[in-house]
Write a structure and sequence with these properties.
Mean pLDDT is 76; it is low at 1-65. The longest helix has 31 residues, at 69-99. The chain has a single domain (26-39, 64-505), classed as Growth Hormone, Chain: A (Up-down Bundle). A three-stranded antiparallel beta sheet has the order 1-2-3, with no helix packed on it. It has helices spanning 69-99, 106-134, 136-156, 160-188, 194-215, 225-231, 234-245, 251-256, 260-271, 276-288, 306-321, 324-337, 343-368, 370-393, 401-417, 422-431, 437-466, 468-489, 498-505, and strands at residues 26-27, 32-33, 62-63. It starts with 25 loop residues before the first strand and ends with a helix. With 509 residues, it is mainly alpha-helical. A hairpin with a 4-residue loop joins strand 1 (26-27) and strand 2.
Length: 509
Amino acid sequence: MSHSESCSCFGFRSGSGPTGLELGRVGIGSGTMFRSSAKSRPVKSLDSDDDIEEDVPLRSPSRSSGSVFPYVGVASLGAILFGYHLGVVNGAMKYLAKDLGIVENAVLQGWVVSALLAGATVGSFTGGSLADYFGRKKTFILDAIPLTVGAFLCATAKNVVTMILGRLLSGIGIGISSAIVPLYISEISPTEIRGTLGSINQLFICIGILAALVAGLPLARYPVWWRAMFGFAVIPSLLLALGMAFSPESPRWLVQQRKISQAEQAIKKLYGKDRVTELIDDLSASNKGSEEQEAGWFDLFSARYFKVVSVGASLFLFQQLAGINAVVYYSTSVFRSAGVASDVAASALVGAANVFGTIIATSLMDKKGRKSLLISSFTGMAASMLLLSLSFTWKVLAPYSGPLAVIGTVLYVLSFSLGAGPVPALLLPEIFASRIRAKAVALSLGMHWIANFFIGLCFLSVVTTFGISKVYLVFATICLLAVIYITANVVETKGRSLEDIERELSPAI
């Protein structure tokens, strides 16, 4: 789920040629802003067999009076909504299906789930372009419209058509959010804690999912409560628009648009007035270093960019095909079929495990690195899915199928949240060159949402046909294939500036 994104709990930036140093290398925790004193380390290029090593100029640290934290917090409202809309249907489906007269219609129930994903696919393909045209800030404000209207329609729906329309609009909103939340956060984040702040996006997606699961607890006593659950999403949607009205635009985007005076004001708000001249010089040098026009869609498939773009798309495909959103959407149903007494509470436990794992991943992202977390995560997911599969097939485990279903699902989600969840959304803004960033992110997220859509639409039908055990076994196999692919193709980006990574992965041709 991305988003993740999802997607999903269960992710972005675009030039070549000489570049300046990265904006936002601010030591927020210590109140300083500085460039890395370490020499750039070589990274194996996806487009070349050669290793390139270049020095990052050194400058002395100095005091900064600004802070990016409040604006990361505002942007994270989009991530909360992302997670909330993904998870809200989990506990509510049984009750809304009864009220809307679709209890016996699995196809329409699938469309209630998947309309969100269809809308998110549209939103993800347009979010990057909107952010490039209008800017990150205005796109957030525009995004609040489908998020608010969609939530209102779902909460007041008297028939399934209105519900599906509301889910479609909400999906467009979270699809746009899935692109612009990590894009905005990554463009204002300091290099030293970019992994940590990038993981905050994933953390708030998980918090959104947990909030949706917890919001469903009163359903057993108040069946009409499902309407309030959908209605709650209106509040953060309006707060997102209001908060962004007072937030700064991305200085990186403003300099690219040659709006230097506005960029100066944004830098002053983010990092303090003492940093304005230095950062404007750095960003202007970076912008002048790339004379190329914004990439077109076909450029993504050129020899120069295809490998790095394929890695981004593949990571999101593996993330979804490994089964995470099947768990998010249908954990309550699976627990119920396994005989777990409090199925909604068990799903809330899964959401709590997701949040806990993401908090751990946030602390490890800038220490252990992205690649190692991905490999560990998919390995743990494979083992957990194998346990789940065996719990439904081995007769000796039959008496314990309920507890094993909960344990296996919690371990799976915990493993996911340690790497497969947060890393793809963080890695994409790091590996994509500036001139292709928006469109490459849109393409990767499009793959994410398309896979997500079909899983949401077909999961129950496939389980009915083949059985849950075989489906979980397929998910385990996909996780192992992901480990092999990541080992061979993904590069480590920990501690490297965006400009340095760009030089390595997308050399000028």
